[in-house]
Amino acid sequence: MMSNHSSATEFCLLGFPGSQERHQILFAVFFFFYLATLMGNTVIIMIVCVDKRLWSPMYFFLGHLSALKSTTTSIIVPVMLWGLLLPGMQTISLTACVTQLFLYLAVGTTEFALMGVMAVDRYVAVCSPLRYNVIMNSRTCISVVTVSWVFGFLSEIWPVYATFQFTFCKSNLLDHFFCDRGQLLKLSCDDTLFTEFVLFLMAIFIIIGSLAPAIVSYTYVISTILKIPTASGRRKAFSTCASHFTFVVIGYGSCLFLFVKPKQTQAAEYNKIVSLLICVLTPFLNPFVFTLRNDKVKEALGDGVRRCCQLLKD
């Protein structure tokens, strides 16, 4: 326990319970997921930049989404892996904790904004195909991506600032594998109820606000697809949206469980499981979701592999 008049200058991350052997197994599993995530998302970014067949708004947004996924997992997983290797408790300074929490929330908010943009892009592609190139021109695409990044980082300045205005004097033990805001608020000796309510409203605005255009867009998309007379036409139209729709369900589903709740200080084990879905599983699935269901990406990837094999033979 700490003095009632002092605030923590560093925190101890409790991470995962269990023996050293269990930690070694978890390290191997998460290290594999981390490497696969970085490799998969980097491949997507590279083929989107190199292959001219993917020089369209949909794949431009996909490249940024892959960059965000790689960033999200790189903010959290290396710290988690280092904690699994240490024999004792892992410590993190107050400055590092502030930086990690801000980057994690800012990149996550940017991702939500971008997924909303991608849903609108699919709406225009399916419902107004003749005007698609006019509406989703390069200037529009660059503008909406820039706004998404700027909004994501600016919108999280006050929430992180407000979180660290409290005095953390109950303890400096964080029952998590990174600087989670809910667990930080549990350590505060101050009344956090009002701030938690404001953070709840902001989470509602960001998550539901970006989910609403996705719901509206896909309502129109599905309605338009069902009106296509041929089965092959319906399959082709749906294939352009299936990957993003799947990712919307996975991404928003896990984040709704974690962030949209009136009480930030819920059970630590529940928090850890949902955080693993967001930081490890979802970034890992991103390359598979967008390649296995997309013929253009598979063709570009196949051509890239063949070119690499040819270069190795020469």
TrEMBL record:
Single GO MF descriptor: G protein-coupled receptor activity
Pfam families: 7tm_4 (PF13853)
Location, primary (coarse class): membrane
Subcellular location(s) of the protein: Cell membrane
PROSITE patterns with a match to the protein in the record: G_PROTEIN_RECEP_F1_2
An example Gene Ontology CC term for this record: plasma membrane
Membrane topology: Multi-pass membrane protein
Keywords: Cell membrane, G-protein coupled receptor, Membrane, Olfaction, Receptor, Sensory transduction, Transducer, Transmembrane, Transmembrane helix
Primary role: Putative odorant or sperm cell receptor.
Protein name, as recorded: Olfactory receptor 9A2
Organism listed in the record: Camelus bactrianus
